[in-house]
């Protein structure tokens, strides 16, 4: 069984497409979100606290109302996706912890030597294996961290008398990933320990449209030159220059601090602030993940220093002509 954590980033339509893909491949898939369960538990705990502050009660009731609206679902049969090729049936809902525990108990139908069912969680680092276990037992039993490689040892945790979970250290399988830059942006390698920030930043720029960077960070990215494609994506240097300048990340030379700016942008990509939902093989990526339209064009008061820093370093035709003719100005012989 394949457990897809962080499934709250996907829409119901996107989950249905992935569920159909895995069903056709004869793979049983389960969608889950450990972060959502943590928020749900936190709101439930807050609801049990009696407060005299009416504003706090109002805010809490709004949270619970929003949570109830999210949990309202159609009949379960409407979320089932069946493959006509393999007969595998997948559920495209984001399951609750109770539904996931039941799924774990029912996944194995053969004879058992022991009373309890043992489920091992195996996968890449930083995909939420330990967070999933903590969300199921409603308390922190396994140490978690956003830095890949936090879990060092094999651990077993009993959910109840019928289910035992095994938390394993993250396994890196380089044959499934082409470059180290991809391993950084997918959260497999720790961002704070990376040595080359250009490669991962270029990967992020390739996935995220230009206007998403500008709308998310409130930055201004330079326009392409006349000789360039007007719809080209910004370069890593242009993005890091603009972000570093607007955030005040400057080095000792008075220039934008690229490594520091890259770490912030890469962490936003890994955490879903810069959201990119990958389409299944055979599906069109542009139609699978449709980005929001560009917001109203903001008016930027660009200073001369910002224009100089964010200006592309490529030679323009005007500069080339000026340089050529300046070199051929006639001078008197000595």
Brief digest:
With 334 residues, the protein is mostly helical. It contains 13 helices and seven strands. It has a three-stranded mixed beta sheet, with helices on one face. It has a two-stranded parallel ribbon with strand order 1-2. Strands 3-4 form a two-stranded antiparallel sheet.
Can you offer a commentary on this structure?
The chain is mostly helical. Helices cover 41% and strands 8% of the residues. The protein contains 13 helices and seven strands. The chain has helices spanning 12-24, 34-47, 54-71, 97-106, 129-137, 180-185, 198-207, 210-217, 236-247, 258-271, 285-288, 304-310, 317-327, and strands at residues 2-4, 29-31, 80-82, 89-91, 117-121, 155-160, 163-167. The strands form three sheets. Strands 5-7-6 form a three-stranded mixed beta sheet, with helices on one face. Strands 1-2 form a two-stranded parallel sheet. The chain has a two-stranded antiparallel sheet with strand order 3-4. Helix 2 packs antiparallel against helix 3 and helix 9 packs across helix 10. The longest helix is centred in the first third of the chain and has 18 residues, at 54-71. The termini are far apart. The relative contact order is 0.09.
